[in-house]
Amino acid sequence: MERARGVAATGPTAALVRSGHRAGIHPLHRLQSQAGNAAVARLVAVQRDDAAPTTPTTPTTTPGQLHIEAHEVAPTPTTTQAGDGAASAQPTGGGTQPAQKQFQVQYAFQGQATQATGQPKGQADQVAAVHQITAQLNVSHHDDDHPGTEQSYALQGGVDASTGHFTGAVFQVQDALVTATHNHLQGQIFGNASAGVAADPSGVLRPVAQAGVGVQGNVVINNTFQVFLQAQDQASLMAGPRGATVSNSEQVSAGIQITFP
């Protein structure tokens, strides 16, 4: 028996089938296309989010904070330990410091050997011992631990130890180079100039100008009291009735000094 062969539909029926197929397949195809497009769009969006560069976060600071940080990392001055253990800025310029002014009073017993070196001729050499009192303003430019310079402005008078006669008074300016104090000992070399009145060999007070150089050693008992020994060579020019007298005097003195705060 032969199987029936399919016969292609023709006519209105074929058209209806074709139309039915179109009506059933087309909406499903469109829905699938929309779903696929939506999935692709989501995948692309995820990939874009993963690939996007991350923006670094910068800590926000105020100008005041930045200033404080710069101040904290700024280098600090070098310091050294002072003698008492306290930190002090360096350098300090050695022993140099602001001038310190002190009022001082001295008493000295002075031996003098004076030789006339000019007119009038035939004047005899003189040897004398003098009690000498000095009141002075001393200006120091160093501390006791360092050498330095000192200036003094003094009013000085004397009395002859043998006769008790007044020997004269002068105003003296002195400049000295002073050593540091070590084991209570201090030394200096000095030069001075003075002007005033002095007694001539007859005891008459005459105008005089003097200049001297010398050395001195001090024993510093404390900040108030010192003992000193001094040697000085001094040249003098004294006015007189027969002209000026030029003389040279070697002087050795021992005395005490009191310093007032």
Summarize the structure in words.
The chain has helices at 12-51, 63-73, and strands at 79-81, 87-89, 96-116, 126-142, 148-160, 166-178, 185-199, 205-220, 225-238, 245-260. The protein has 261 residues and is an alpha+beta fold. The protein has a domain at 96-260: Porin (Beta Barrel). A hairpin with a 5-residue loop joins strand 1 (79-81) and strand 2 (87-89).
Provide the fold topology.
Elements: H1 12-51, H2 63-73, E1 79-81, E2 87-89, E3 96-116, E4 126-142, E5 148-160, E6 166-178, E7 185-199, E8 205-220, E9 225-238, E10 245-260
Antiparallel strand pairs: 1-2, 3-4, 3-10, 4-5, 5-6, 6-7, 7-8, 8-9, 9-10
Keywords:
eight-stranded antiparallel beta barrel; 2 helices; two-stranded antiparallel ribbon; Porin; 261 residues
SSE class:
alpha+beta
Describe the main β-sheet briefly. 8 strands, antiparallel, barrel
Question: What is the name of the CATH topology of the domain at 96-260?
Answer: Porin
- Please give the CATH class of the domain at 96-260: Mainly Beta
